[in-house]
Amino acid sequence: MKLILAEKPSVAKNIADALKIKTKSDGYFEGEQYIVTWAFGHLLQLYDAKDYDGKMTRWKMENFPFIPQEFKYKVKADPRNRGRADSGAQKQLKIIHRLMKRKDVDMVISACDYDREGQVIGDSIIENAKIGKPVYRLLINEWTPKEVIRGLDNMKPNAELKPLQDAGISRQWADWVIGINLTSVSTLKYQTGRGKALNIGRVLLPTLKIIYDRDKEIENFKPENYYKLTATFQTDTLEEYQGTYTSGKQEKFTEEEDLQKLKQLIDDRQAQILDKEVETKKEFPPLLFNLSNLQGYMTNKYSGWTSDKVLKVAQTLYEKKFITYPRTSSTALDESLVGKAAGVLKVLAEGLPYEGELKFTKSKRIFNDAKVESHSAIIPTYLKPGRLTNDQELVYTAVKNRFLMQFMPVAEYEETRLVTTIKDMELQGVFLSKGKVQLREGWKKVEKIQSKDTLLPYVNKNALVKVNNSQVSSHVTKPPKHHTEKTLLRVMETCGKNIKEEDTEEMMGSILNGFSIGTPATRAETIKKLKDIGYISSRQKNLYSTELGKKLVETFPINELFDLEFTGRLEKTLADMEKKKIEKQSFLNMVYEFTSHSVVTIKSAEEATINQVTSTTSNPEILGKCPQCGHKIIEGKKGFGCSNWKMGCKYVIWKNDKFLASMRKKANKTMVKSLLKNGKAYVKGLTSKKGKKFNAYLRYKKNEDNDYYSWEMEFKK
Question: Which of 481, 515, 670, 712 has the highest count of CB atoms within 10 angstroms of its CB?
Answer without folding.
Answer: 515
